[in-house]
Amino acid sequence: MLLKSFIEYISFEKKYSKHTILAYKNDILEFQNFCLTKFKDNDLSKVNYPQVRSWIVNLVGSGISNRSVNRKVSSIKSFYKFLQKTKVVSENPISKHKALKVSKRIQVPFSQKEIEAVIQQFEVVDFKSLRDKLIIELFYSTGMRRNELIELKVEDIDFSNNTLKVLGKRNKERYIPLLVSIKESLKEYLAQRKEKNSLNEYLFFTEKQKKLYPTLVYRIINEYFSSVSSKVKRSPHILRHSFATHLLNEGADLNSVKELLGHSSLASTQVYTSSSISKLKEVYNKTHPRG
Prior knowledge:
Blueprint: H1 2-13, H2 18-39, H3 49-61, H4 66-85, H5 112-121, H6 127-142, H7 146-150, E1 157-158, E2 163-167, E3 173-177, H8 180-195, H9 214-225, H10 236-249, H11 254-261, H12 266-270, H13 277-287
Antiparallel strand pairs: 1-2, 2-3
């Protein structure tokens, strides 16, 4: 009952995504099973910190990364915050736990040359390749998240105002301006889409006219960029990263980039400024009077 109440809370009140909800549920069930096996008791309302710490030690010993351990612990911490809020427990047994140290992952964005190479070399031979090309263009021109692209509907396009409505995290809506080139690509795609006589409400769909799914979108980006980039990671998020970095390199205001990305705080956006340091140094050395 405790887990069910928590899932309802993060689903309907916090409005977390299905993916996040499933992750929370799996983490809590994993912890509960550990308690049953190790301590012969799966009553989560009676858990203390030594038991939680024992689980963390077990996770670390299993070989998973500190980042993954911290994510699982975060799920448990949120669960107990909810139990404390609803008066099920008087104290959060994990409130004073300090996250494990993790090394900062440096995500290298695609260069403008790499992105232009993909778009210019793109051969549109059928509806699928037209769809793939538009997906890449949208990621780079809007900076939207993978799930935001998957959830796009035809009705979200407003050609009269040149905007695209995006449903972000926690169902927060934002409007992103459409470049002229993207507007034309969308019109061409919609014309061919109409010929498919699809009843699908989503803008993009599979060859079987089903809703796109995350791994397919990842494969699309990875496949096309593997021919022009030797980067280890070639994903939708790297295109989002590239969008933000290239805007900042060209002098875009940090607050504006924040709004375009749909971030709730500047702290989230500032991670992209690290990739702009080399550009800043170049501008600084060229323009400073004593450079």
